[in-house]
Specification:
Protein name: Armadillo repeat-containing protein 2 isoform X1
Helix content: 55-70%
Strand content: under 5%
Organism: Cottoperca gobio
GO biological process, one term: sperm axoneme assembly
Distance between the termini: 15 Å
CATH topology of the domain at 1-12 and 26-33 and 691-831: Leucine-rich Repeat Variant
CATH architecture of the domain at 1-12 and 26-33 and 691-831: Alpha Horseshoe
Region (Disordered): 62-99, 137-227, 550-569
Largest sheet: none
Amino acid sequence: MASMERKQGICSPFIQRRNTVRKTSAEIVSEARQSLRVQSTQRPFTPRDGHRQLFGKSFVRADRDNRPPSTFSLHAQHFDAPDSRPGSGTRLSPLDHKPNLPVTCDAQDPFKAFPRPPTDPLEVKRGLPRARARFLRAGSLTTLSPVEGHMDERLNPGPRQKQPSAKGLPSTDHSEVRSGPHKPGPRRTASESRIKQPGIRPTECGAGRGTELRNGDTTTSTEEDSESLVWNNTIAPLLRQLESVAAGSNEGSVDHLCDLCEGLHGTLAGSDMLGRRCKRRSGILRTLFRLIDLNSAQLNLHIAKLCLALCISGNNLLNICKLSFQISRSESNDILFHNNSIIDSFLGVLSNEDVSSSGEALLYCVGTLKFLSGNNAILRLLLEKNCIGVAQNLIQRLCTAEDTNFTIAGHILVQLTATLRNLADHPDSRPVFISFSILSELDVVLRHHRRDPDICTNVSRIYSKLSSYSECRLALAQTPDCYQLFLELLSIHHQKQTNCTLNKDLVVRFLFTLGNLTAKSDDARQQLFQCEGCMDMLLQLYVTYQRRDDSAHPQKGPPSPSGPQASAVSVQEDEDVLVKLVRVLANMCIHPAVGPALATNTPCIQLLMETLELKSVQESEELLVNVAATINNLSFYQEESSVLRRSQLTISKLMLKLLLSSSMDAMLEATRVYGNLSQSKDVRDFIMQNKVHQFVVTLLDSKSTEMCFSACGVLTNLTLDPPNRLSLSEEGAAAKLVDCLRDFGAGDWQLAGQVCQALWNMIGGGSEKLLDTQERASLLEILTTYLDEEEAPKWIENEDMRDYHRACWELEFLPVAQKVMKMLQPPDRTA
């Protein structure tokens, strides 16, 4: 009976298929450890742009020449001072209603007369309807103070503004027409609906001059008196101080001007005059715009903040966003943004402006945030101010933009996805990304802009960063059809500009993301494999990059025109694609339905073998390690139809260069492959004939438990053949196995069980003499200690792991150790 039991144990291969009813976690881990392994790899490195530009050097959009510029000049003359209302951009017809008003001119009150129309017929055609409409809207205002009339003048007044028609009346000059005619009466626009800025009520930005004075009651009169009092006592003096500096006075430094702007901002906020509520708003803006020519970044940022608080729109909003963008291009100015609440204003612009009317302003505003998010301190500030939530809202609006705004929406998304890419670096951003469903929103972005390599690359960088974390992987995996979308994007972009670094970045990162998704989830492995054209796409990529990588290798042809350094970089980029692609294959074949299918896929096996043949460990270590891991996983499936099974001798020869290399990772994976392939008699003969067994025995001296475990697996299979036992004993295998058991057994019961299995195969069946007396005594002592049911589990210091180790002790070590112990004991003690 004992003989039959021993014989059955000797014939058992290294990879055992158990049929136990009770399957513990230890058994599951053991099976995975002996057979299929998930491959990990480093996330692709994303270098930061050396220069802050709206679109980096790698920008490859088809409309490259029409993209908005990163450099421009801004001066006071570029701004429109009387920005009381934004123009609609549509020319309106004159009003049909023509009231009959008295036109008598009273010498005592000359302001009761209408201003004379221009004598030029062209001026009559263009100016009169607008002047009449404006006069009727402000009909309750019969006189204006000289100060207010002064404030309504343009920054650069033309000759027509100085005509007598401007005496104390609402301005009828053509400077207002430059911003575009608009409908009579106040109209709320996107820029007028900002309500998140400090000191601004929800109705401020929509309040026009006509609505302020429409009801001539006591309350309105009181408000006017109060505003006039604040204006005369506080605001006007502040403006005069600011204007004196703009005119060349030496009253104060830049710091003093910044203090004045802060004081002006605080006064307007405290008096409820921010937004469009202040009647003299145009005068404030004109003074602020003049200060821009002083060319101080610190001052200009204060000006920008105050202008945004005054709800500017149109051309002024665009220029202020450009001004902020210009300041943010220099990293030395980051501290100015950190110490300024203007970031709240930027987020307000993103929340409320419409892409159809303020698309370019949004572009430069998001571009500013992109630069600032490269600063760690400001990045943290952006997270605190809910930048990710604002970005989600903007993404939704951009993805639903009309076709006429598709191009500018794409430009904005390039900046916005780059900003999110930077935010994804911060660990605190991950739960926020999930709570706002940013990963699924980005999936929508990819579907709308799937042919835009800049947007797709930025999103791929976000996915590659976040998919390294379990909670983000789960959120991404739950996005409908994300696997099919990734395959489509790989198909689109790997064919375009194959030498373009940006496309390689995109390809390598989507492959890295797929590798992360399939690393821990069986559902992900199956879903990806079942996608239409999955294997065709992956193998097409494999062929493309392996062939190009091989042809571009520096040693296989003349140096490239761009120099050996550029050629080496290109080769490394191509190889990185292969590393991530092979990792996906290695992870996919862990699934019990996918693995057998891949094992019978002839092109797949041939490409893996080709990689082993073409590459060297010194130059392509990670790639060859991943290929070996994939082959190891596939070798688990030994069906008759397996292509790998028919090629196992060729693979065994190719594995020699990994085993004999100086790379410990390569040696480990090669040993694992030999552990599976050595179930075949032909492979065992190959190992012995090529003296591979000598090297495997030396691996038992390794300090790595993984290396020892894999080496024991190979020896377990080699000792199935009686002739091999003596050869292994002559190499000192038995003694090294005993040493390995003593050194590592108590901390790793799986390894201890594998050592005992190798010893059982080696010295069983009448081969006990292969152990000398000292080795036998040492082995008995070790086993006696390890088989103590009360003491053995106590050697694990981590109490949380004791149950796990006890399960391993019971399942992996105890059965085979008892067999070895019984064999070693003298006959009189077994009676």
